[in-house]
Structure formats: structure tokens, C-alpha cells
Write a structure and sequence with these properties.
196 residues; binds zinc ion; globular; Glucose Permease (Domain IIA); 13 strands
């Protein structure tokens, strides 16, 4: 069994699949509101979120020429681990793809990752088996959102109780007590980062 908290190759896959590394990918950049459990928004009026942030928002990064760049609606999204698609639900910018990773079963819980604000690719449906690094989606264009938010990737990771049906998992229940225990995705994201 692979421990779920070992670093993934997620950034490596993202950089490779999107040619982000032409001038060298140096590090992720996060505003406070992008981080796990952040109480505040990083967009619009930067007021309070409805509930603490359920994961991590990936948007800005620095290259080796010290330029600050960002993901966009063409960015293709890889999965972090081998797994199976167990749900696709709506979020406020697009869809969220929920993946189960059987290797990491713990107690009576299953390890899941979620890729939010995306447009899942054709063929990505419940039951689809994928390998780490496979592309499952492209980012959803946030340009038409009235919130003023930028196109970005939301990642959640955590353990869902085996007794919970995936039919019940959506953005109302993700992270709720007795449903899903979230963890900080920075524990599993490769590459360095700075918080500014
Ligand atoms: Zn988010």
C-alpha cells in the first residue's frame, strides 16, 4: 500500500502536459485566501467565504526568469494518483471530478481527491479508471462569473467514510462532519511554494 501522504507528481505532470516549463517552473504562489482552511476569499471583495476553504486553489506560479504567470482556461488537469472516477458534480464555476484511490483505504474510510472548476473531458464518467498523470479535464472559464474570480483549479483531498454513498457527495457535504475528513493538499503537492 502506498501511503496517501507521500508527495505526488502532480505539478510535474501539469507542467509537462501544459508546457509550463519552457522557462522553468520555479514555484507555486498562494495568496492567503487560496490556502486550505482559509476563512477569506482571494477575489472580489475579499470578504468571508461561506465556510472555510475545503482545499487549495492553484492559479499563480513563478518561472525561473522570476516572472509570475497563471493557469488559464486551456490548462489541462492531470490526476494525482491511480484511481477511479466516482462522481462529477456542479460547482460555481464548472464541474468537480471526484476520484477514489483504493490504495489508500484507511480504517473504514476511502481516500479521495477532487478537481474543481473544470470541464471534464469526453470519456471521463463515473466508473472510468485512470492512471496518475492522465488528463481528465480542462479548466472551466471563469470569465463569465459575476464574482470577479479568475480561472483556477481547486483541489481537495481527504477520506470519505465507506458508509457514505457517492450520490451524497457534493459541495454541501464535502468536508462536513461524518462525511469527509479533509487534509491540506499542500501535504501531497510536489514542488515548492510561497505564500504572499
Ligand atoms: Zn478553492
Amino acid at each position: 500500500m502506498t501511503p496517501p501522504l507521500s508527495k505526488t507528481r502532480f505539478t510535474e505532470f501539469l507542467v509537462r502536459e501544459n508546457s509550463l516549463g519552457e522557462c522553468g517552473f520555479e514555484e507555486w504562489i498562494f495568496y492567503p485566501g487560496m490556502l486550505f482552511n482559509a476563512p477569506d476569499k482571494w477575489w472580489g471583495d475579499q470578504g468571508k467565504r461561506d465556510k472555510p476553504h475545503e482545499g487549495l486553489d492553484l492559479f499563480l506560479y513563478r518561472d525561473q526568469l522570476d516572472r509570475i504567470l497563471h493557469l488559464n482556461k486551456k490548462t489541462k488537469i492531470p490526476v494525482m494518483y491511480d484511481g477511479v472516477v466516482v462522481g462529477i458534480v456542479n460547482d460555481f464555476l464548472g464541474k468537480s471530478v471526484i476520484m477514489e484511490h483504493g490504495f489508500a483505504a484507511k480504517d473504514n474510510r476511502k481516500f479521495c481527491t477532487i478537481y474543481g472548476h473544470t470541464n471534464p473531458h469526453d470519456g471521463i464518467h463515473v466508473g472510468r479508471v485512470v492512471k496518475q498523470g492522465d488528463i481528465i479535464a480542462t479548466l472551466a472559464d471563469a470569465g463569465r462569473s459575476k464574482t470577479g474570480i479568475s480561472t483556477h483549479l481547486h483541489i481537495s483531498a481527504g477520506w470519505i467514510f465507506k458508509s457514505i454513498s457517492y450520490d451524497r457527495i457534493d459541495w454541501e457535504t464535502i468536508g462536513a462532519p461524518n462525511t469527509m475528513t479533509l487534509l491540506d493538499p499542500l501535504n501531497v503537492i510536489d514542488r515548492s511554494y510561497v505564500s504572499i
